[in-house]
Amino acid sequence: MRALTDNPQNRVVIISGRDRATLANWLGELPLDFIAEHGVWLRKAGEDWQLFQELRNDWMHELRPVLDQYVSRTAGSCIEEKDYSLVWHYRRADADLGEMRARELVSHLSFMTANSDLQVLEGNKVIEIKHVGINKGTAASRWLAQYPADFILALGDDRTDEDTFRALPASAYTVRVGGSTRSRARFRLAGVKEVRALLGRL
């Protein structure tokens, strides 16, 4: 990524569900543009973070106890509290138990958030509650409306990246990394090693 950003003709944008602090800690020393929390926060290279759009988070105190209950019932799971979303992680839980609890939690939360402006999102070993309309695809569309590009390459390995693939123009090179599920991406790479090789050839 450093080699890509060294070329002034390139613009590298990280669109992630991760929070601002994590992204800054991992990649903050690189001259990258960031879109954090699926599109809540934006930071252009060398600038400060800013909200992509105004949101509320007063709903979190009502749903947090539900997630706490599932943590107590599922060893190895934990909660991540972002500025405008709540996430239940179960990657370290027993696989079968984690999947069972995830199905229960999605059902529970879907009932609680019905007729609200919240949605329950299933990711890779995570369940996230966030605002409707906040996703990587919306963020990508808004970014490109402001910064059009002649060449677009988008890579992702998560269900939430499908929103990005869906939102990009047909001319974009969209790449699903890993997995065997159907994808809206035009191409597929097996894993991180292949991604690094591809980026190295650009």
Feature tags:
202 residues, alpha/beta, 4-stranded mixed sheet
Mean pLDDT: 94
Multimeric organization = single chain
Number of strands: 11
Q: What is the 3D form?
A: globular
- The largest sheet has its strands arranged as 1-2-3-4
Structure annotation, total helices:
7
**First and last CA, distance:** 10 Å
The helical percent reads 25-40%
Q: How would a textbook summarize the main sheet? A: 4 strands, mixed
β-strand amount: 15-25%
Task: List the uncertain runs.
Answer: none
Describe the structure.
- With 202 residues, the protein is of the alpha/beta class.
- 37% of the residues lie in helices and 21% in strands.
- α6 (161-167) links the parallel β9 (153-156) and β10.
- α3 packs antiparallel against α4 (95-113) and α5 packs across α6.
- The mean pLDDT is 94.
SSE map:
Layout: H1 2-6, E1 13-15, H2 20-27, E2 33-36, E3 41-43, E4 50-51, H3 60-73, E5 78-81, E6 86-89, H4 95-113, E7 118-122, E8 126-131, H5 136-146, E9 153-156, H6 161-167, E10 173-177, E11 187-189, H7 192-201
